[in-house]
Every structure is written in C-alpha cells, then in structure tokens.
Design brief:
The chain is mainly alpha-helical. 51% of the residues lie in helices and 5% in strands. Keywords: Signal.
Amino acid sequence: MRQFSPHWSNLVLLAGLAQTRPDFEEPQSSSVMDWSACAVCQKKTSEPLRCPLNAHGADKSAPAVYGSFLEKVTQFRELNALPVPLAFGAATDVDELIRNHAQWHKSCHDQFNTQKLARAKKRGRDSTPAPEDRCRRPRKCFDKTSCIFCTKEDGLLHEFKTLGADDNVRSMARDLLDSDLLTRIEGVGDLIALEAKYHLACLVGLRNRHRSLIRNRENLQDASKPDKKARARAFAELVTYIENEVEEGTLLFKFASLRHLYESRLADFGIRSEVNKVRFKEQILKHFPYSQEQSDGKNVLLVFEKGMQQMLKQAMETDYEGDALILAKSARIVREDIFRSCGFNFSGSFPPDCQKNSVPANLKSMVTMLMKGADLKDQDCTDSQACLTASQIILFNCKKRARRDKHE
C-alpha cells in the first residue's frame, strides 16, 4: 500500500481550519429535521410549542416572523456565535418553514432575539477590531414623533403614562408573535421613559387581537376538559334549586347542605372530588348579591335579605307597653266622643236613622275596624246592623267612673 507523508503546507492549512472551525457542526440539509418537535432544540418537553401559523392574522404575520427568525439566525452564523446548535442548514428558507409548520419553544426562540444578537455583535467588535473600510449599518433611532404600532405621524398621538404599560405591550406583542412590533420595541428601553407615542385605535386593536387569542386558547382548553361543562351544569342546577326555594319562602340555607347537594350531583356525572369550601361559598355569594353569610356559632348559613328581616322581627319582640298606650289613647278618644254626644231622645216615634244618629261617629269607626279591619276595599257603604248593635251596647254600658263598693 502506498503511503503519503503529509506535506508541511497541508499541515498549516489543517491547523488554520481547526482554529476557524465553529464549536459544533451544522447539517447542510433539513433531511434530519423533526418538524413535530421544536425547530431549535429538536426536543419535546413539557413547555408548550408555539407556531406562528396559529397566531391571530397568521396569513400576514407568520411569514414576517419566520423571516425575522431566519435573518437573526443568519447573522448569528456570520458572527460564528450560534447560541445553540441547529438541525436545519443555512439553505432553509421561509417557504420551507411554512410548509412544515415550524414551531418552537418560547425559551428556545428567545435565544435568537434582538438583544442577544446585539450582545453577540458587541462581543465580536470587542474581540476583533473592525477594518477601517468596513461598511456599518446605521442604527435605527427610536422615533418619538410617530405611532409605535402603525409608524404613522398623522392623527392624535398619546403618550404611555400608565404604570405597567411597557410590560403589557411587550407581553401582548410576544404572545401575538408580532415581529414588526417586536423589532421596533425590543432593546429600546422603557416606552414611558422614551416618551413613545401611539394612536388610541392602534392600542385598542392590539388589545382586541390579544383578547381574541386568549379567548381561543381558553376555548381549546375548555374543549379538552369536559369536567368543566359538567361542573357548570351542576352549579346552574344548584342555583335554580336555591331560587325556587326562595320563591317558596325558604330564606335560610346551610352551606354544608348546599355543598353536599353539589357534590352529589357531580358524582352523578362521574366526578368524585371534594369541593373547596371557601371557593364554593364565594361562588354562591357572588351569584346572589342580595344574600349574605351568617353563622349561628356552629353552622355557616346563607341568608337572604327577606330572611334577615324576618329574623330581626322575631328577635325584636312585640312592644306590649307601646301597644297598651296606643289602646289607652284610642279608648280615651272614643270615650270623650261618647260623653260629648247628645244621644237619642225618644219623642214617641223612631225616625229611619235613629240607630245611626244615636251612636257617636268615633265609636262606629272603632267597632267597624275591629270587625272588618281598616282596609278600604273591605268596607261597606253604610254601617252594618251588627256594628250599630255593638255600638249601642257599648254606649249603654259606658260610664265615666267605675261604681265603687259601698263597704269601701
């Protein structure tokens, strides 16, 4: 076998390649890519995967997000400073990512953000002096005269002044994977301190898109958890039961009994779990704002306003002394009217209204209210014979002073 001795120039060339070799090898094609896993780390972990094609307005935003990601990857490769090894090569383009529904972990995608790219560039400048004829890109200045969302200067512009506005805008932009907005605000500092401007309609539009994204996520989670629908149905049936009982006059409920009913209904749906007492009580009180929580020392009760009124009335016993004074005053008024009246003097005949005229008006009113009550609808046009007869008996037996015993 013929042996070749290494030439001195070849050894020098190999040594130079060894010095310029990156820390890890990158594949030249994407044939080994597992597109169902994270496109960055190629792992499946408990962290959820995010795909730009599933975001709100993916038709317009997804190509921009993929393009921004690949552009940063290219710049990292040029600096020979990739944060993590990548399974796809430099020939991968946006169309390939879209065609394979590329997705990634948020923590992996953050390894290629603008801030870390700027740090990598700074490290490269510090370690290797740039040549004098090198053409540098001009740094984009933060424009304070235009809207941070639409980059337009027309219309009424507002400033960020609310605490937490900067964090809220950045958080919504990251959730929506809005690469254009992230490019403008990443690494520029606090929006409030920089006096950033915005159109009110643009901010409302961002919030609406973010709210729609959150709602869609919650709907997907609810669809995957049928227990929530069963719990909602059981609670709705419990609320209906309480409302029906209140209409029938039951105004006091034990929270323990209500919770037992709720747990029994959940067991019918195949859900056997203990219900948290505090959260269950707060949920009931939130649904019935005209009720309140009370305790008798042993049981915690759900009491409605009408029930509280009844309890207070029962607690406050009848004021017998006050009633006695009212009766005495009424009797004094009627007696004074009796003794002031002239009565009936027989003149040999009985006129048609002799019975009515022989009895004082206050006495007839008192007897009528005792017999029929004071309701206007229950009264007759004229005084009844029973009223006149009873009034005449009272009038006949009425005396100014009680008769005293002769032995006294």
